[in-house]
Write a structure and sequence with these properties.
The protein is mainly β and 50 residues long. The chain contains 1 helix and 5 strands; from the N terminus they run E-E-E-E-E-H. The chain has one helix at residues 46-49, and strands spanning 6-7, 11-13, 20-24, 30-34, 39-40. The chain has a 3-stranded antiparallel β-sheet with strand order 1-2-5, with no helix packed on it. The chain has a two-stranded antiparallel sheet with strand order 3-4.
Length: 50
């Protein structure tokens, strides 16, 4: 893996800013689809985050 990694609110990514697409479907339900992170903080054990 080469290049820079960036820390965002949800995890670690190769992009400085997450490219998210936000929209409402025909039924009025909100959707937010973002680029995937290399590592999501939700996947890490709590011991590593402290």
């Amino acid at each position: 893996m080469q290049g820079c990694v960036y820390f965002n609110e949800d995890g670690i990514s190769t992009h400085r800013y997450r490219d998210c697409v936000e929209y409402y479907d025909a039924e009025g339900v909100y959707h937010c689809e973002c680029d995937e992170n290399i590592v999501d903080y939700s996947e890490l054990p709590d011991k590593l985050l402290k």
